[in-house]
Amino acid sequence: MSVISIEGMEFFAYHGCFKEEQVIGTKFRIDIFMKTDTSKAESTDSLNDTVNYQLVYKVIGEEMKTRSKLLENVGRRILNRIITEFPSVEYARIKIRKLNPPLGGKIDFVAIELETS
Which domain holds residue 86? Predict the structure, then answer.
């Protein structure tokens, strides 16, 4: 069993409870960790025998375009699609950071981490 990770993905999106967040938008940084069996790919050296990082990135980008008030909602939608569209992924964990959140002071980010059961 292996863990494939894609870390530091950045997207500009319009998630948030405040009206200005839904108008102005902000940057988000995402890390995803996917547990899968890579033993076949280790010997075949074939992309068809593992999780295609490019397709995972595309799925995450598509979900980031769908506006949500809560990061919890965004994260769960992403995880549901990863598990559905990549059946070899047995478990996934995602961390979503909202950079420079509008909380009235200097804050680098707020974050949520979710995982599949």
Answer: 2-115
- Give catalytic status of residue 98 as yes or no: yes
Task: pLDDT tens for the chain, 117 residues: list them.
Answer: 999 999 999 999 999 998 888 899 999 999 999 999 999 999 999 999 999 999 999 999 999 999 999 999 999 999 999 999 999 999 999 999 999 887 788 889 999 999 998
Question: Do the Cβ atoms of 43 and 26 come closer than 8 Å?
Answer: no
Active-site option among 19, 27, 40, 98: 98
Beta strands in 66-107 (DSSP E): 89-99
The rounded distance, in Å, linking the Cα atoms of 85 and 55 is: 9
pTM: 0.93
* Number of domains forming the structure of the chain: 1
